[in-house]
């Protein structure tokens, strides 16, 4: 039996040892050899250890000749602080072998850098140090692990995609999806690490934010001309996001759908791009994994977003060693 080797690191916030242990056990049952860096169990201020210890752990995993996958244990805050150090080290010493990075939330900060400079594949997916990882359905978890193994998961698609306004993706239109957590992506604007493809479809997800703050962040993207380079927007989960009225507000509370229309519908009209929503990807329960920088097609008749091509499929065994433990 061959098992893919996975390194677990914690580039962001501290985590629960018990939850991580259960998450690792679940990964191992799906045919993986999992190694957890001791840094994962540290806690220092806001972070799972000081910046340099988190940088060193990430680099150990990245340059490990045995592993194929680097998986973030959890999100929170702190990933962006590591980028200049990872950038400098790989500039001086050369880039690590091509691997796949798995994570979401705060880990979205790594996506553009890892894809552009290190040529890694990215999977936006739940992390083993979070409770929601343990609550994933067997079906969703198995599909995620098929992605990790570089296997072509059967019938990979998102069904019943909805649109704001009249514009929709064209039948069999082929496009690349990129993006991540909205607040994390916005924090990269103006840095060397905002690096995403022109002509792609921007994926956005968020958790527990007020819709007025979401609108502020979307306006920042708009004024930075990000949407002028996009072929569309796809919204994942905006889990626990709502219109929280301040004390003394002189208006009525706005519903979730109406907020989407006000915030994103305006962007669609301005840039003449389709705005899709309804992807079960993000912080919500029963979340699915989403291959980033993969190519997708939209099927108009059945309203499905179908995976067309991803660089990691069939490539994991070529990019790092697979250990035979039989």
SSE layout:
Layout: E1 2-9, H1 17-29, E2 32-36, H2 51-62, E3 69-72, H3 83-93, E4 100-103, H4 111-116, E5 121-124, H5 131-134, H6 138-149, E6 157-158, E7 162-164, E8 174-181, H7 182-186, E9 201-207, H8 211-223, E10 232-239, H9 256-271, E11 275-277, E12 290-292, E13 294-299, E14 304-309, H10 316-319, E15 323-324
Parallel strand pairs: 1-2, 1-3, 3-4, 4-5, 8-9, 9-10, 10-11
Antiparallel strand pairs: 1-15, 5-12, 6-14, 7-11, 8-13, 13-14
Report on the architecture of this protein.
The protein has 326 residues and is α/β, with parallel strands linked by helices. The protein has two domains: 2-154 and 311-324, Murein tetrapeptidase LD-carboxypeptidase, N-terminal domain (Rossmann fold, 3-Layer(aba) Sandwich); 157-309, LD-carboxypeptidase A C-terminal domain-like (Glucose Oxidase, domain 1, 3-Layer(bba) Sandwich). It has ten helices and 15 strands. The protein has helices spanning 17-29, 51-62, 83-93, 111-116, 131-134, 138-149, 182-186, 211-223, 256-271, 316-319; strands spanning 2-9, 32-36, 69-72, 100-103, 121-124, 157-158, 162-164, 174-181, 201-207, 232-239, 275-277, 290-292, 294-299, 304-309, 323-324. The strands form two sheets. It has an eight-stranded mixed β-sheet with strand order 6-14-13-8-9-10-11-7. Strands 1, 2, 3, 4, 5, 12 and 15 form a seven-stranded mixed β-sheet that branches. Helix 8 packs parallel to helix 9. The chain is globular, with a radius of gyration of 19 Å.
